[in-house]
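ingest -> fold -> write
write: protein_1
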Amino acid sequence: MRMDVEDADAAIKEKAHVVIENVIRDAKEHLQDLQEKERAYCLFSEAEYIIQNIQWTSCKDFTVERGQQQIEEYMSQTWEFHESWLHWSDYLQEEELKYSKRYHYRVRWSIPTCRKPIPRATACIYFIIEISKIKPPTLPVEVFFILESNKLIHRPGQCRVREKWLKDIIESKRILMDSITF
C-alpha cells in the first residue's frame, strides 16, 4: 500500500515537472516572438522617420526676437503634435559666460478644452540659445532644450520629440495636485 502511494506521488511529481517545463518553454518562445516583433517594428518605424531640423541663424545675426522666432519655426516644422496642443513662448533671461552668452526661453504647452479653457497644468520646455564669443560669428548658434522635471539635454536635429513627454509632465502635476488637500 505504501509503495502504491509513493509510486503515485512520484508519477504526479513527474507529470507536474513535465507540465512546468512545457509552460516555461512556451512562455520563453512567446517572449522571443514578442521581442522579435518589437525589434522589427522599431527598425521599421525608426527607419521611416527622419529627424528634422531647421537652419539656425548665425551668431552675428542673432537677436532675442530672432531666437524666439526660430524656436517657433523649429517646433512648427519639426515636431508632430495633435492640433489640440497649444503653446506660448517667453524670453526669460540672458546669461553671460566666459566664452559665450546664453539666451533662455520657455515654451509652455497645454491642452485647453471647452469645459476647461484654463488648463489645470502645463508642461514647459526650456530652450537655450548659445552664442560663442570665440568661434567665428558666421557659424550658426548652438541650441539645446530641456523638458521640465528632466535633466536630459536635447539638441535639435538629434532627437525625435514625443508628445508623450508633455503628457507625462502634465499627468504627474495632476497627480501631485490631487494628492494635496487644503
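write: protein_2
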Amino acid sequence: MPTPATAAAAALSPSLFLQSLPSAATIAPLSRPSLFRPCPTATILPFRARLRVTCQTVLSADVSSSAEIEEEEQLAAAKIGKRVRVIVPLKVYHVQKAPGLDLNGLEGVIKQYVGVWKGKRISANLPFKIEFQIEVEGQPRPVKFISHLKEDEFEYVD
C-alpha cells in the first residue's frame, strides 16, 4: 500500500513512483477519485514511463441453453406474418405524416421477432416488430410504418 509520501511522489512525477513500485502492484487509483471508479481487480503496470490501469470485468453471462433459444426462435418464427390488432391505448410520435397517432384498434402484420439476435437472447423490451398501414388524407397511397410492441399489447386476428 503506498504511503502518503509515495502518493505525493506519484502526483508530482509518475516515473519516480514507478521506480518505487514492484513490477505490478494492486492498488486503488491515487488521484482524482471522482474521475476514477475503483475496481477490485485494478492493476497498475509500468508501460513506457506511463501508468496503465487494467480492469477485468465479466462481459457476458449466458445462462440460457441453446435448446431454450432454439425453441424460442421456433415459437417466434411461427408468429411472423400473422395479423394482429393493438388492444391497449398506445400513442406513437415517430410517424411524421400522422403525429400523435393512437394505435389502439389498428391492425398490422408481425414482421420480425427481435428477442434473439445471432443465437443469443437479448433483453428487448418490445420484441415484436409490427408493420402498420394507415390512410392519411392528402396521400395517394397508404402510409406504412413500423412499431415495436410487447406480446400483451396486441391480439391475433384470424
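write: annotation protein_2
The radius of gyration is 28 Å.
Residues 79 and 149 are 13 Å apart (CA to CA).
pipeline exit 0
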